[in-house]
Write a structure and sequence with these properties.
Blueprint: E1 18-20, E2 23-25, E3 32-36, E4 43-48, H1 52-71, H2 74-90, H3 92-103, H4 107-127, E5 135-136, E6 144-151, E7 154-158, H5 166-178, E8 181-185, H6 191-203, E9 211-214, H7 220-229, E10 233-239, H8 242-253, E11 258-262, E12 267-271, H9 277-289, E13 299-305, H10 309-321, H11 341-356, E14 360-363, E15 379-384, H12 389-392, E16 399-405, H13 408-416, E17 420-421, E18 423-427, H14 431-440, E19 445-448, E20 463-464, E21 467-468, H15 473-478, E22 481-488
Parallel strand pairs: 7-8, 7-10, 8-9, 10-11, 12-13, 12-18, 13-16, 15-16, 18-19
Antiparallel strand pairs: 1-2, 3-4, 5-6, 6-22, 11-21, 14-15, 17-20
Length: 498
């Protein structure tokens, strides 16, 4: 197929504007920014470079749409989400092409993301009618107490480029299920996927103003602070780095918003001597190298017990040598480019630092300039030590550092010696150890004998400086609801005529 982009089956899914109040709009300033294919650096197109004034228009549209949207029955909202889900499934190939084009991940990965992303609309279409209140036995005679679940209001959603579809649907699905309206800030690197989802929302019959997408690259900080400082927006949900999360939290303090943050991770991946070697190796490949290591839950530090260490190294390296790095549309490609040159620089710095301090590169360890400047070879380094950068920082790239450990207590201590706690993984056949270690790891999510834990049905989120709040699952809709308590007094009168 070469490096040309395959045409979309439905060309009308390719939009070069933002989406506000049901209309496709440019920035009021007329400014745009260019989006480039990370594999070829060729321009994909331009998107509006929006500012505070544009964002305010979107916020006002969401506020105007809220009263009627929240009054719809939960079942009516459920049907809209279900239709949006079906449209994503029907257009899955086109959405996958857009993801590969602007994010770089191979088509097979992109198709997997579309199915996962659509799954959030399906899941929350089913949760919408199930936002139950409670009837509570009052302690005061004659009082009757019950609760209602109500939408929190207009929500501001800020999502990253690494899952251009799924990070958006994981937030919009529960927001709409709860009866909220939203202003979503598309990722600057990957706004075309978001725009295609916006087009499908129109076809799904979602009313104007309920879903708004604003776009920006250089103006991203201004867009973010407009969302966080707006008194109209009652909740902000953000996925991204811990540093930006802290900034948004500070900015949200003045208006005391409800927040849910899914921030950086540094996932430990532990293989015990009693693990099934093949299962552990396959799990490590899936967790570490999915999207070329550009996921917040991918294995960052791989701890292998000494008894299995050499065997694991050999089997793991053999698999990595089978990878085919290249352009995401090309046949047989397993791994694409990194998102931009800053990502490549960070990965390279981590590798250089590890080798300088005694780490041995078993495979990879270099840039791949023949493919393009954003390509880095999938890399495995053995003999890692705790004073290397990779041990303490999230690499967000295709580098697996293998640390050796002796005892369970030692590795749990190492695993927990991070200020973040998103995901953790370990492999063992001992049922007692499985419970022990799962309970001891200071993370929000644990994968036991699996490297893939994401599922719309499972609560996703972290502890420590990985943030708070949960996405997906029955807990996901709670983040967009508030509980109203109603007490009826004077209800304990005798029956009339008694």
């Amino acid at each position: 197929m070469g490096h040309s982009v395959p045409p979309l089956n439905d060309q009308s899914l390719l939009k070069s504007q933002a989406f506000i109040n049901g209309k496709w709009v440019d920035a009021k300033s007329g400014k745009t920014f260019e989006v480039k294919d990370p594999a070829t650096h060729k321009p994909i197109g331009t998107m509006p470079e929006m500012n505070a004034s544009d964002v305010q228009t979107a916020i006002d549209a969401a506020a105007a749409a809220l009263p009627s949207f929240r009054k719809l029955t939960a079942r009516e909202r459920s049907r809209m989400l279900r239709k949006w889900y079906q449209l994503m499934v029907d257009n899955a190939e086109d959405i996958a092409k857009l993801i590969t084009w602007e994010n770089g991940k191979p088509m097979a990965d992109a198709k997997g993301e579309v199915a996962y992303a659509a799954g959030f609309f399906e899941w929350f279409s089913e949760e919408a009618p199930r936002a139950y209140g409670d009837t509570i036995a009052a302690t005061v005679a004659g009082n009757r107490v019950f609760t209602l679940k109500e939408p929190v209001g207009v929500c501001g959603l800020i999502t990253p480029w690494n899952f251009p579809a799924a990070m958006i649907t994981r937030k919009i699905g529960p927001a709409l299920a709860a009866g909220c309206t939203v202003v979503a800030k598309s990722p600057g690197e990957t706004p075309f996927t978001a725009a295609a989802l916006a087009e499908l929302s129109v076809r799904a019959g979602i009313p104007p103003g309920v879903v708004n997408f604003v776009t920006a690259m250089d103006n991203t900080p201004e867009v973010g602070s407009t969302i966080t400082s707006s008194p109209i927006i009652k909740k902000v949900s953000f996925t991204g780095s811990t540093g930006v999360g802290k900034l948004l939290m500070k900015q949200s303090a003045d208006t005391l918003k409800k927040l849910s943050f899914e921030l950086g991770g540094n996932a430990p991946f532990i293989v015990f001597d009693d693990a099934d070697l093949d299962v552990a190796v396959n799990g490590a490949i899936a967790s570490k190298f999915r999207s070329s290591g550009q996921t917040c839950v991918c294995a960052n530090r791989l701890y292998i017990q000494s008894g299995i260490y050499d065997k694991f190294c050999d089997a793991f390296v053999a698999k990595v040598k089978d990878f085919k790095v290249g352009h995401g549309y090309d046949e047989g490609v397993t791994h694409g480019p990194l998102i931009h040159d800053r990502a490549v620089s960070k990965v390279d710095a981590h590798v250089q630092d590890a080798t300088k301090q005694g780490g041995t590169v078993l495979v990879g360890g270099q840039k791949l300039p023949d493919l393009g400047s954003n390509f880095y070879a999938p890399t495995v380094i053995r003999d890692m030590t705790d004073d290397m950068q990779l041990a303490h920082e999230e690499t967000f790239g295709p580098v697996a550092g293998l640390f050796k450990f002796e005892t369970e207590a030692e590795v749990v201590k190492l695993a927990n010696a991070a200020d973040v706690g998103l995901a953790g993984y370990f492999f063992s056949k001992d049922i007692h150890r499985c419970y022990r270690v799962a309970e001891a790891l200071e993370v929000g999510m644990v994968g036991v004998n699996t490297g893939l834990i994401s599922d719309p049905a499972a609560p996703f989120g972290g502890v420590k400086q990985s943030g708070f709040g949960r996405e997906g699952s029955k807990l996901g809709i709670e983040e967009y609801l508030v509980t109203k308590m109603v007490t009826l007094g004077g209800m304990g009168q005798p029956l009339q005529g008694e």
